[in-house]
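Thread amino acids onto this structure.
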């Protein structure tokens, strides 16, 4: 389970967050989570899920899964296999790994059968309104133009968060926001605007002192 409010760190495929470095960074995330008594989860490469999940007690997520069931699907990332090695859920439809909505719906349905938590990324409130019909557990709104930058969505486009919150009204999906999140105030404002957490990557994974950065972010929850 993912306890809210929450900070989710997407490790992507940065040198600083794969292989041995993935385990090292995950341990830092766990340290801050325990110290601050805050909810922190990590989303790691498929090849790092097993080692990371063995090394830490905080939730570990896959960065992507395919809708396929076990069988003749060379190269497919199966819900069954990420769950077997320790993932409790998955990101889907990240701006760097977009999925056609028809396939996205099928993937969410298959993930549910495997009891995996689904966090679906969308580009704006309009897509949030479309995706909520598939009933993911969380919808993460990330305007593509702000991803990887230093200006957060809560500062640059707070209206998108408000509109997304309204779009999800009456649905079971909870709102997470991302793109440019890197300060205590970014997190605090996102929560005030109706989100239950934030999703970020480079602000932590590429930081010279990721522990210090994550400590500051945790203060905003």
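Threaded sequence (221 positions):
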């Amino acid at each position: 389970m993912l306890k809210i409010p929450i900070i989710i760190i997407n490790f992507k495929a940065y040198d600083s967050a794969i292989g041995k470095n993935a385990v090292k960074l995950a341990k830092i995330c766990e340290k801050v989570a325990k110290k601050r008594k805050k909810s922190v989860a990590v989303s790691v490469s498929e090849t790092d899920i097993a080692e990371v999940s063995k090394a830490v007690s905080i939730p570990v997520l896959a960065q992507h899964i395919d809708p396929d069931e076990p069988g003749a699907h060379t190269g497919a990332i199966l819900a069954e296999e990420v769950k077997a090695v320790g993932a409790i859920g998955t990101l889907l439809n990240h701006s760097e790994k977009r999925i056609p909505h028809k396939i996205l719906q099928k993937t969410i349905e298959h993930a549910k059968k495997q009891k995996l938590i689904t966090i679906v990324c969308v580009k704006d409130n309009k897509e949030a309104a479309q995706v909520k019909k598939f009933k993911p557990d969380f919808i993460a709104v990330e305007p593509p133009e702000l991803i990887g930058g230093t200006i957060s969505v809560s500062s640059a486009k707070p209206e998108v968060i408000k509109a997304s919150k309204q779009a999800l009204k009456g649905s079971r999906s909870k709102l997470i926001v991302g793109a440019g999140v890197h300060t205590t105030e970014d997190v605090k404002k996102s929560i005030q605007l109706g989100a239950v957490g934030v999703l970020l990557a480079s602000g932590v994974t590429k930081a010279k002192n990721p522990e210090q950065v994550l400590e500051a972010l945790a203060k905003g929850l």
